[in-house]
Amino acid sequence: MTAAEALAQGREPRRGGILNSIITPEPPLLVLGVNNQGPTLIVASKIYQGLLTVSPKLEPEPVLARSWARSEDGLTYTFSLERGVKWHDGRDFTAEDVIFSIMKFHMEVNPRARAILQRIDKAEAPDAHTVRFTLKAPFEPFLLIFDVTGCAIVPKHIYDGTDYRNNPANATPIGTGPFRLAEWQRGNFIRLVRNDAYWKPGQPYLDGITWRIVPDSQSRALALQTGQVQMTTSNDIEPFDVPRFQAQPNLEVRQDGWELFAPLSWIEINNRLDNLKDPRFRRAIAHAVDRNFIAQRLWFGVGKPATSPIASATRFHDPSVQMPAFNPREAIAILDGMGLRPNAQGIRASFKMMQLPYGEVWNRLSEYLRQALRQVGLEVTLESTDVAGWVRRLANWEFETTINFVYQWGDPTLGVERTYVTSNIQKVAFTNTAGYSNPEVDRLFEAARNAAQAEERRRLFSEVQKKLVEDMPLVWLMELSFPTIHDRRLRNVITTGTGVHKSFDDVFFAA
């Protein structure tokens, strides 16, 4: 029963109770914008809020903005803010906090937001509860940045005129959300408690939320199985452990709630090197890999095979795009055509693959790829590293191939373009570290970025997808979906396109 259903039946959602969950790895801090890593987003989205959130269909929904309007020319966006909202320290939330957060704070500390916010020509606060942004040119996906995961609103009176990254207040975050930080024992737990002055009457329903820091995956699974925690999210539970929790009657396993993020995984290929720079060779790799096997046998159906460089959760996915099918014979024919004949050991070519150090399932994926590629005469040497080493080597182009995945953020301009355009070939992780460059792809992405109408953008993104599949700069593997597993008594866990990355002001334990 959702909160709305309970109210419709004349019953209030049940108040009280502590939600125990797990967070892994431990966040470095809880100030959104200064840090936007996954664990930070999950916890801090209960402390901070955005102007909007998005539905599972990626349509904007109100949070701190009760309503909004766009001018006919697509240049001006006007937000009407909620009244009676207070920061956790008792100060009033006003339009000045919004202007400061958007035009100063995130512009400095948040590269993903900056790429969109720098399109703003003018920001105004006609009164304490109205904000108006005028863009330099129309930008169709503008509203998608205003979710808390993209642009959390922070208190101007605490951050204005300070070093945002090193402000002492970062240790005690102050937001407008339904929960406030009560205690953080590093390496042990993070405890939030109800904000009794929350601006939605009667909410939140929970007394608090406690996240335990549990580095070991089997210990996390045991905590869920025995009821020590009532919810796990993201990477907490390995995909191969999910089936046993699906069979546990007191638990619910959800795969939705990732529509905004739409993470897509791939084999990242350094397009600068030897055979790897030849699109024929990359296509041979694609034909040698069984994406259905990966989705069903390694991820146990948590996610689905990739069908395009743009995830199917976004409105610009083109289902007519044809990815190279699993066909080892075709892979061998391509390699033969390149003159890569097998030696006495059956090896045609060799390269290294840097493993993604995100857990056991990713190690299993690398091992599967090594074996699958060996079947067509490609010898893969696996390289192990830790997370810091993986990020450093990826950023410095010190790899031959690796496994990677990134969020698509609801729109290809926001989350896909960065991986393929020549202008984003940087020594920075999660840019175009593969070094792929095609002037036509650059042109199409730029045209789609600047097009004011969704239909024109759809046409351009369709062309982009076809061109990328033709060039195969990467080998796309899976549309990832990280399971949210929770006690069936817990209601309203996932109601938006951001899943557990929401305020939880409507979450409650049913009797």
TrEMBL record:
InterPro entries: Peptide/Ni-bd (IPR030678), SBP_5 (IPR039424), SBP_5_dom (IPR000914). It comes from the Bacteria. Residues 59-404 form the Solute-binding protein family domain. Belongs to the bacterial solute-binding protein 5 family. One of its GO terms (biological process) is peptide transport. Keywords: Signal. GO terms for molecular function: peptide transmembrane transporter activity. PANTHER family: D,D-DIPEPTIDE-BINDING PERIPLASMIC PROTEIN DDPA-RELATED, PERIPLASMIC BINDING COMPONENT OF ABC TRANSPORTER. It is found in: Periplasm. The keyword Signal applies. Its main location: periplasm. This is ABC transporter substrate-binding protein.
